[in-house]
Amino acid sequence: MKPARPAVRRLLLVAASLALGAGTLGAAQLGTAADEADRAGTPQARCTSPQDRPETGTQGRVPLAEYLTGQALAGYQCNAVQVARQGTSGGFKVERYTDRTGRTCAYYDSTLLFPRDVLFNAVQGLGVIVLDMSDPRNPVQTATLTSPAMLSPHESLLVNKRRGILAAVLGNPATNIGIVDLYDVSKDCRRPELLSSSREASFGHESGFAPDGRTFWVAGTAGGNLTAVDISDPRDPEQVFEQRGVRYHGLRLSPDGRTMYVAVTGSSPGAMGNAGLRILDVSEVQDREADPEVRVVSDLTWDTVSIPQSAEPFTRGGRRYVLETDEYADYQGDREVGAARIIDVDDPRRPRVVSDLRLEVHEAGFLGGGDQALDPGAAIPVQGYAAHYCSVPYPRNPKIVACSMIVSGLRVFDISDLANPREVAYFNRPVLPGSSTVQPTAAGAFAMARPAWDVERRHVWYSDGNSGFYVVGLRGPARKLLRR
Q1: Average per-residue pLDDT in the chain?
Q2: Which of 40, 47, 258, 448 has the highest local Cβ count within 10 Å?
Q3: Any domain includes 476
Q4: Does some domain include residue 6?
């Protein structure tokens, strides 16, 4: 590789300096203090494909030195290959849906940080991007959704596959007024039909869908509300429950819609004094009882907790688990990175952590001023070496997990042995600081989106806030794990 030009070298050093300054802002002080014992990252992927470009050092790290030589700009991939790329930005969700006619579409939000991206994306298109995925090697944009919630859905974009409803609530990194947008995508997924746009919640940030598609749940997070919206008639939605004074993030539900797995970001009424997982009984809302109550079943925290993002339910051999992900970290070094974990919730009164999904770079931390703090994007409080979303390809007996781990890109794990997960693939496309004309502040990777799965083709779809939407093909041992 040719060394970076002097001007680029100076730009990288300036960017690194700015990142270190930004890191002093830190993230919210949450959860219990971590112990000081070193933890090994999840065993690293063994690359087997001739197309691989493996990482050269610490698992998950993209060091500043490899930007200076130009090596980082070629990207890193292991048992994974780029099938397609579309657009130049991305956000927090990638959703996949097949309509009644058999057409398959992707939906992803393009506004990672509001209002920054509204300005920078103005020349490229705003809102939620609709892609015709008939040929996954050639995604075709067929629509852009710009109703109020779709302009800035933050982390709330979801598709209910049973009813073919695309939903979101207006949000931003803190909270926003709770306007809920509902679209019909069942007839033609390429051209969503707006059914309603109305304020149904006090505030919006994250969300959840009852599997039967009758209830859209809203978490205001910083706004302090948990809200249930009856969308039995999506043209005339109605708020049926709202609780205030809670600090809830992602909301995921059991198959019957009666149990909710809540990512708690801080102190909330009940037993939860710190961040972690809360299990709620929401059966009275699901049953549409008059004046329903939502009851706390149990709370759980862990010593590496940062900011819990979501807890996605799945089963193994009939036993119930959730795949929980934490976002961000405290970059001042007095706490570890939360990353992700598998939690046994078969007895919802006594949940327990089974195993962690972590990278070596998550263990390095910033304690003592580690040189990884100089890596582009690493010390920015809303970026950094941390996790954000994970997903499984199907809820029954999955053996593979895909996670967006921000500066470390897309990471794929083998969970055949739930107690001993292993990394099996990765794909990362970092951006040179100052190289993007659309996002001039972009540096490194910014993989924040919950991945979607094309199981038949062994593809994973995700988006990177700095470089767009990707279709990634799995190879070798990663590909084999997608066989049911």
Answers
A1: 87
A2: 448
A3: yes
A4: no
Q: Is residue 18 part of a domain?
A: no
- Looking at residue 50, which CATH number applies to its domain? 2.130.10.10
Q: Which of 275-279, 351-355, 370-374, 428-432 has the lowest mean pLDDT?
A: 370-374
pLDDT at 404 over 80: yes
For residue range 124-168, list pLDDT tens digits in order: 557 999 999 999 999 999 999 999 999 999 999 999 999 999 999
Residue 206 lies in a domain: yes
How many structural domains are present in the chain?
A: 1
Query: What's the domain range around 84?
Result: 40-480
| 340 close to 357: Cβ distance less than 8 angstroms | yes
